[in-house]
Amino acid sequence: MSDIDAxxxxxxxxxxLSATSFLVWQGMQxxxxxxxxSGAYGLLTLLALVGSLGFAGAMVMFLVYASRVTRTxxxxxxxxxxFDHNQAGAVRIAYIALMAAVVALYVLTDFVELxxxxxxxxxxxxGVCVPQFAFLILDRQDGDxxxx
Length: 148
What we know:
By secondary structure, the protein is mostly helical. It is 82% helix and 0% strand. The protein contains 5 helices and no strands.
């Protein structure tokens, strides 16, 4: 495996960790808000803590990744036209998902009273996780994902 393949695999693993951890962290906080007197509140808090630590860890690991890319001078090779195409596609998918979520929440407010904090958390989850997962899926479909 070349240095570039290893760096691409590292990037994709950190993206997956980042998106999954953020989803767990914020998702557990939403569940805690919806069911505050749940008997599983401690478990939900623990899962939220694990998710937040995973997300923080992923952010630190992105710094490690960036230093390795800088040290090996491979940025131009890693960020090629296919990367740019997948990134643009992921942003497009995320924009559509975010607008769909906004419209769905707007329509839902006509029928149900919604907590604004929960709505913002839900939109955050869509805005942070969808582009990362979409990029990973597009990257894997194009065969550039460093898959074994």
